[in-house]
């Protein structure tokens, strides 16, 4: 995939993010994982049941390339909004049903495939954060990327939909991937992945269903992605500082009509009106 989301950081933010890198990993790190709960049919029927933090992204329709992100949390049954809605950008072709905690197939709507330029719709775990610097500014598990880290978007690769270290798997194993995770070191200081969150889309890593899905930073509010969700650096920092892995945060990403259809069945919160 080719991504085009170069964020505009202040000098102070860049200095903080690029100050250092963590030591190399000793084993490949997957983009997505399937927890034991994900295999339970109850998860598919009630995909947000275990979550007490929700990152909700909605868009006007399947072909929309922009929308809004809202945050919610709960201590019991009732959801309460945290902060205000923030603008986001989506895939260049809009949305399509992805594979995550929700049941598939769904009654209507396109289905995600590799290279379609659509952001995956549904409910997804957020396994952790990644970036260039030594810290993720978050309680979320964090991995500092290095020049040898690649996310495999080649469907016939045995490492498809995983982040791997070429020093561990060999340079030939990452041949053909268009996803170096240290874009600044591969593309003249490109900082688009300076901070981001992994989205557990396609947790079984089935070839062709779509790979390397992230929440990451944008270059401008007008620019789309290749299938991720992008946002301003201030929105990302706010999100990361709020997320807590002990509260089992999940991403809910849906067109507005699908959100309305599923809200009751999935126990989703009421949304702030779209701006």
* Terminal Cα span: 30 Å
DSSP summary: helix tally: 6
Q: What string gives the helices and strands in order?
A: HEHEEEEEEEEEHHEEEHEH
Q: What is the molecular shape? A: globular
Strand line-up across the major sheet: 4-3-2-14-6-5
Strand fraction band? 25-35%
Helical content band: 10-25%
Rounded to the nearest angstrom, the radius of gyration is: 17 Å
Which residues form runs of ≥5 with pLDDT under 50?
1-40
Search tags:
single chain, 275 residues, alpha/beta, six-stranded mixed β-sheet, five-stranded mixed β-sheet, 6 helices, 14 strands, 15% helix, disordered N terminus
Q: Which secondary structure elements does this structure contain, and how are they paired or packed?
A:
Layout: H1 11-17, E1 29-30, H2 41-45, E2 53-59, E3 66-73, E4 80-89, E5 94-97, E6 118-125, E7 129-131, E8 142-144, E9 149-151, E10 162-165, H3 166-169, H4 183-186, E11 195-198, E12 214-217, E13 229-231, H5 233-242, E14 250-255, H6 256-266
Parallel strand pairs: 2-14, 5-6, 7-8, 12-13
Antiparallel strand pairs: 1-10, 2-3, 3-4, 6-14, 7-11, 9-10, 11-12
């Amino acid at each position: 995939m080719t991504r085009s989301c170069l964020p505009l950081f202040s000098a102070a933010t860049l200095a903080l993010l690029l100050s250092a890198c963590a030591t190399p990993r000793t084993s490949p790190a997957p983009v997505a994982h399937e927890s034991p709960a994900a295999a339970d049919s109850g998860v598919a029927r009630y995909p947000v049941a275990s979550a007490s933090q929700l990152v909700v992204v909605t868009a006007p329709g399947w072909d929309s390339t922009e929308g809004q992100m809202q945050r919610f949390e709960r201590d019991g049954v009732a959801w309460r909004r945290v902060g205000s809605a923030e603008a986001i950008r989506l895939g260049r072709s809009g949305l399509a049903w992805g594979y995550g905690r929700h049941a598939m197939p769904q009654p209507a709507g396109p289905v995600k495939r590799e290279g379609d330029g659509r952001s995956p719709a549904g409910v997804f775990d957020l396994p952790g954060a990644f970036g260039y610097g030594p810290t993720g500014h978050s309680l979320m598990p964090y991995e500092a990327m290095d020049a040898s880290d690649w996310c495999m978007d080649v469907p016939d690769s045995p490492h498809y939909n995983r982040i791997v270290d070429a020093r561990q798997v060999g340079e030939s194993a990452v041949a053909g991937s268009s996803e170096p995770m240290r874009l600044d070191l591969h593309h003249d200081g490109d900082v688009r992945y300076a901070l981001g969150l992994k989205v557990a889309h396609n947790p079984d890593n089935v070839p062709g269903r779509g790979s390397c899905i992230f929440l990451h930073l944008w270059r401008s509010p007008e620019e789309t992605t290749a299938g991720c969700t992008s946002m301003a650096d201030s929105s990302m920092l706010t999100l990361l500082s709020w997320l807590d892995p002990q509260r089992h945060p999940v991403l809910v990403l849906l067109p507005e009509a699908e959100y309305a259809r599923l809200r009751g069945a999935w126990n989703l919160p009421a949304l702030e009106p779209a701006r």
